[in-house]
Amino acid sequence: MDKEKAAALRYAFPKTVPVMVGYLFLGAAYGILMKVNGFGIWWVLAMSGLVYAGSLQYVGVTLLASMVSPVYGFLMGLMINARHLFYGISMLGRYRGLKKFRNYLIFALTDETFSVVCGERVPLRLDKEWVYLWISLLNQLYWVAGSVGGNIMGGFMNFDTKGLDFALTALFVVIFTDQWKSQKDHRPALVGVFCSVVCVKVWGAGAFIIPAMAGILVILSVWYKGKKKGVKSFG
Q1: The pLDDT of residue 149 is above 90
Q2: Terminal CA-to-CA distance of the chain, rounded, Å?
């Protein structure tokens, strides 16, 4: 590995540590669920390597075990991961001009990777494309390692997975706190909290994500557009 790539890796790794802790834990729970439902390590590798969508993979355990139709599985996956449409739109500027790894970076844009990359200001001395690659690749490797490890453990022990998915909530809190501490301007974060709270009240916990993401996207787009024109926004 040359010095440029190694420097990008050294910079990216600490950024992914909170994700590593959450992904190893959540991935292990997913691997155990797969084993309990009769799916071995090759299934886990295929799902974590090619699907790589935590919440959808959890739902996928039930879908596979129930042998639902592909059409139903497609529609379910579309509803669960529709929020990624908004992630992708908001990352157009950051990923514009990338050439070597753009397709993989788009594929690997999970909730947690988005949370890390969207607030990242890569130093000029580093190749930002390599930094983004390492962040995305390391996060996926954590998920794959956790899910494979859990699948192996699931063959040797009985494990109650009730409540394990709370680790995902805890992971989001850690990432949000880290972003809050690293940024001087907290208004974008407050917009996110405000939109989420309002949408939970209006649509409920089961359907608030898409309208909340739409609201955040609209407000921040107007704000950034106003900043470019030199108009004062948010007071």
Answers
A1: yes
A2: 48
CA 21 centroid distance within chain: 14
> Is the predicted pLDDT of residue 234 greater than 50, yes or no?
no
Distance between alpha carbon 74 and the CA centroid of its chain, in Å?
A: 20
Say how far apart CA 6 and CA 4 lie, in whole Å: 6
> Which candidate, 47, 50, 52, places its Cα nearest to that of 63?
47
**If you search the block for the tokens 């739409």, which residue do you land on?**
214
Give Cβ neighbours of residue 39 (< 8 Å, ≥ 6 apart): 61, 64, 151
Which of these, 197, 185, 196, lies nearest to 224 by C-alpha position? 185
The span from the CA of 32 to the CA of 46, in Å, is 15
C-alpha span between 1 and 46 (Å, rounded): 28
Q: Give how far Cα 175 sits from Cα of 90, 104, 180, 202, 235, Å.
A: 18, 22, 9, 26, 27
pTM: 0.71
Give the position of tokens 């409920």.
204
- Contact between 27 and 51 (Cβ < 8 Å): no
Tell the residue number behind the tokens 């690293």, with chain if given: 182
Sign of CA dihedral 139, 167, 217, 73: positive
How long a stretch of residues is the chain?
235
pLDDT class for 228, splitting at 50, 70, 90?
low
